[in-house]
Write a structure and sequence with these properties.
The complex is a heterodimer of chains A (305) and B (251). With 305 residues, chain A is α/β, with parallel strands linked by helices. Chain A is built from ten helices and 14 strands. Chain A has two domains: 5-221, P-loop containing nucleotide triphosphate hydrolases (Rossmann fold, 3-Layer(aba) Sandwich); 226-285. Chain A is 35% helix and 29% strand. In chain A, the strands form three sheets. Chain A has a six-stranded mixed sheet, sandwiched between helices. A four-stranded antiparallel sheet of chain A has the order 2-1-4-5. A four-stranded antiparallel sheet of chain A has the order 12-13-11-14, with helices on one face. In chain A, a hairpin with a 2-residue loop joins strand 12 (246-250) and strand 13. Chain A is elongated and about 80 Å long. Chain A starts with a strand and ends with a helix. The radius of gyration of chain B is 18 Å and the shape is globular. With 251 residues, chain B is mainly α. Chain B has helices spanning 2-17, 19-41, 53-84, 88-91, 97-126, 134-158, 162-178, 191-197, 201-214, 221-245. Chain B has one domain. The chains are: A alpha/beta (305), B mainly alpha (251). The interface between A and B is medium-sized, with 36 and 27 residues. The complex binds adenosine-5'-diphosphate and magnesium ion. Adenosine-5'-diphosphate is lined by residues 14, 17, 19, 37, 39-45 of chain A. Magnesium ion binds next to helix 1 of chain A.
Chain lengths: 305, 251
């Protein structure tokens, strides 16, 4: 099957700034994929290149097999992009914008789908309101609707939940999930790592224009973030044998890393042997935030070397 | 073609929705010129034999209004989209660069013609003017609007902001329109300025347009149309090349 997105050896330079340094990335059809990275990592630049808003200095990209430069018309027809910037056209209402957008994609009578989009995004009662009068969250949803007017098989959302309240975020993701189940490929960037963790099956992490991690969410979690246990001890001293597991020492607490939950037994046994009692104990599950920080930190050290 | 039509329609709707500012306001300004200049000069100036000054002035003002409004339409629409960022709505869909060009130019022509027609109608009510060669008149009107529409696109593509945009409008477009013979025949100018006027493409537009009304002109209308057509073609090709390259739109 043709990959939904194929990015090969893409470089982007803005003058002396090397914003993308040879990015290779393939997203298969039907995936729910996250592109993560700190601000300035190059996520938006990469999306802009896919969307034809910007041209790669070097390398090539395809959407559903269509080269984004040579075969731009088909590439754009198969792609829906929700831009990061909260843009709108002050002259027009929500429905007018959606009709125009349909027309630009060559669709003449699209009102049934437009109504469905408005309904699913909770915009039905805002259809005839000027976009400039909408709140930030609503403007964001209009952008989502605009990206979907042509039912693109590949949907890219660049920080779609920035500035959107919790309830709307849930609704939005519920809708996007349904699109994914219906076969649409979804690529998103977000700063809410728990969103990426629960939604996405695969994750790429970008830093300073390079992919520094690319794996399934499951593998990333199990390979990088071990289970941890936080202990409050009495007396407040850690037996020498457990020193190797120590990751952090907070006020009156020790944070130890465990391979898995069964590692806890060994820790408790060692404490008993050393005659140290446990006042408090808290086991934390690894989450994507830990993995992210760990990978970003490791990349920092590698850069420093 | 649906994409082209939609963009054309959107551009029409854009200026229509703010018609007070895009149609009525230039109409009133132009009519004020007519009122003042005709009042002051009617008794003193006769440019062509048998043609009163007010009648002479009307076609000039109509053309000036058309040129300024065609330019204003394409340039302000594009610069607003660029500055507000909503230009992405046009860059993400599979619109071809020539569709983009055609829609912006066509909408600018419509606005130019609407304002020009309004000025003409009001002027005609003021002083009825003849229409000796309507086809020449239409040809020059279309060429003028198209030329300025293309110039407007180029300016908005190039401009980094509203101030640069206004600079082009105030330091290039306005002087060229005012110094093209709207208010006078270039034959009344000293030789140096007369010669210089012949390098101003707007001069041929106004002169040829006037020929459509009175059947009299400084330059033969065929030569005028050839010159104007060449300018229009050159500007259009330049605009198309810029749009195709993605100049300042797709960095
Ligand atoms: N048009 C541009 N001109 C110059 N530098 C740019 C431009 N767009 C982005 N950059 C730079 O490229 C880098 C990557 O930016 P971006 O892709 O927006 O990052 P992200 O979306 O991951 O936060 C940043 O250093 C940014 O300042
Ligand atoms: Mg970004």
């Amino acid at each position: 099957m043709t990959p939904a997105i194929e990015i090969s050896e893409v470089h982007k330079r803005f003058g002396s700034l090397h914003a993308l340094r040879g990015v290779d990335l393939t997203v298969e059809q039907g995936e729910f994929f996250a592109l993560l990275g700190p601000n300035g990592a190059g996520k938006t630049t990469l999306i802009n290149i896919l969307a034809g808003l910007s041209r790669a200095t070097q390398g090539s990209s395809r959407v559903m097999g269509h080269d984004v430069v040579a075969d731009y018309r088909d590439a754009r027809r198969t792609l829906g992009v929700v831009p990061q910037e909260l843009v709108y056209d002050a002259f027009f209402t929500v429905r007018e914008m959606l009709r125009f957008q349909s027309g630009y994609f060559g669709l003449r009578k699209n009102d049934a789908w437009i109504d469905e989009l408005l309904h699913n995004l909770g915009l039905t009662d805002k259809a005839d309101i000027y976009t400039r009068l909408l709140s930030g969250g609503m403007k964001r949803r209009v952008l989502v609707a605009q990206a979907l007017v042509h039912k693109p098989p590949v949907i890219v959302l660049d920080e779609p939940t920035a500035g959107v309240d919790v309830e709307l975020r849930q609704n939005l993701w519920e809708f996007i999930r349904r699109l994914n189940r219906a076969g649409h490929t979804i690529v998103l960037t977000t700063h809410y790592l728990e969103e990426a963790e629960t939604l996405c099956s695969r994750i790429a992490m970008l830093k300073q224009g390079q992919v520094i991690a690319l794996d399934t969410t499951h593998n990333l979690l199990s390979a990088h973030a071990a289970t941890q246990v936080r202990l409050k001890l009495n007396p407040n001293r850690l037996p020498e044998v457990l020193r190797s597991l120590l990751v952090a020492e907070e006020t009156g607490c020790f944070r130890l890393v465990l391979k898995d939950y069964s590692g806890l037994e060994g820790v408790l046994a060692s404490l008993r042997e050393a005659n140290v009692a446990v006042d408090e104990l808290e086991v934390s599950k690894p989450d994507l935030e830990d993995v992210f920080l760990q990978i970003m930190g490791r990349a920092d050290k590698e850069v420093a070397r | 073609m649906t994409g082209l039509w939609t963009l054309f329609y959107k551009e029409l709707l854009r200026f229509w929705k703010v018609g007070l500012q895009t149609i009525l306001s230039p109409l009133v300004t132009t009519l004020l010129y007519l009122l003042i200049f005709s009042h002051v000069l009617e008794a003193h100036v006769q440019v062509y034999p048998g043609v009163g000054y007010t009648a002479f002035l009307i076609p000039g003002l109509v053309m000036m209004a058309m040129l300024q409004n065609a330019f204003a339409n394409s340039s302000s629409s594009l610069i607003q989209s660029k500055m507000s960022g909503n230009i992405v709505f046009l860059l993400l869909p599979p619109l071809a660069y020539w569709e983009f060009f055609a829609a912006y130019v066509a909408a600018a022509i419509v606005r130019g013609l609407v304002v020009g027609f309004g000025v003409g109608l009001a002027g005609w009510w003021f002083t009825p003017v003849a229409l000796a060669h309507p086809l020449w008149m239409v040809a020059f009107a279309l060429a003028g609007c198209a030329m300025l529409a293309a110039a407007g696109i180029i300016t908005a593509l190039w401009a980094g902001g509203y101030d640069q945009m206004a600079a082009v409008q105030n330091f290039i477009i306005m002087p060229l329109t005012f110094l093209s013979g709207v208010f006078y025949s270039i034959h009344s100018l000293p030789p140096f300025w007369q010669a210089l006027s012949r390098y101003n493409p707007f001069f041929y537009l106004i002169d040829g347009f006037r020929y459509g009304f009175f059947g009299v002109s400084d330059v033969s209308p065929a030569l005028g149309l050839a010159i104007v057509g060449a300018c229009c073609l050159a500007l259009s090709l330049a605009t198309l090349a810029l749009l195709k390259s993605g100049y300042k739109l797709r960095n």
